[in-house]
Amino acid sequence: MPSDAKHRPVYVISVAAELVDMHPQTLRLYERKGLIRPGRSSGKTRLYSERDIEHLREIRRLTQELGVNLAGVEEVMRLQHELDDLQGEFEAEIERIEGELREQARRPEALPAEGGRLDPRDRPVYVISIAAELVDMHPQTLRLYERKQLIRPGRSSGKTRLYSERDIDHLREIRRLTQELGVNLAGVEEIMRLRHQLDAARLGLESNVRRIQEDITERMTKLRTLPQGEAESDLDTKTGEGDPL
């Protein structure tokens, strides 16, 4: 979980319920459903963070303003929690890489591994007729979902729609939400918006980690030519450590 102040558990359940205009029993129900994940004090008292308050307000918006059923809300909040967890993973990865950078400055012969590559599941390959057959939908339905921004196919140089494996997964997810869970279109739009946001966040994490690793490689190459003491001093300057100016 990210370590910033918004995720620090500070509000007891009575205060949290008052902030979001809900009954404390409603907050307990949402916790049992996995929609909200409050922290605990050493005495096991529920403590809610600012992020929890935002999530509770989002639940109220989905149910009261958009009419999303509970199954849809569960999907939305699961994705919200995945986004929060992904941010925490990113922060932890940055800390790990910074530690690796400091360690390798003392062993400059070692270089970090090369970063990852773009997921082949994102490569657009299927024309609309094939994509529609794969997900058992009419091509016009896929065009409607694109206009609603539930799906975002790529384009060939001739502007032909091309769908990736991930797009196919998203279309199957839309069918599951609408046909199996009875989620209305407003709920599906919220869920797919979060899915796209989560995919983009994951790609961004991979890209940032790869960029940092490449930067480490470049620094390690330069540090090899410096004396040991000077190399460590240069490293501290680049990572923001050492004595303030």
TrEMBL record:
Residue ranges constituting the HTH merR-type domain according to the UniProt record: 10-79, 125-194
PROSITE patterns (UniProt xref): HTH_MERR_2 (PS50937)
Transmembrane segments annotated in the record for this chain: none
Coiled coil: 76-107
InterPro entries found in the cross-reference section: DNA-bd_dom_put_sf, MerR-type_HTH_dom, MerR_fam
Pfam short name (any one): MerR_1
Record keywords: Coiled coil, DNA-binding
UniProt superkingdom: Bacteria
PANTHER family: HTH-TYPE TRANSCRIPTIONAL REGULATOR YFMP, REDOX-CYCLING DRUG-SENSING TRANSCRIPTIONAL ACTIVATOR SOXR
Descriptive protein name: MerR family transcriptional regulator
High-level lineage: Bacteria, Thermotogati, Deinococcota, Deinococci, Deinococcales
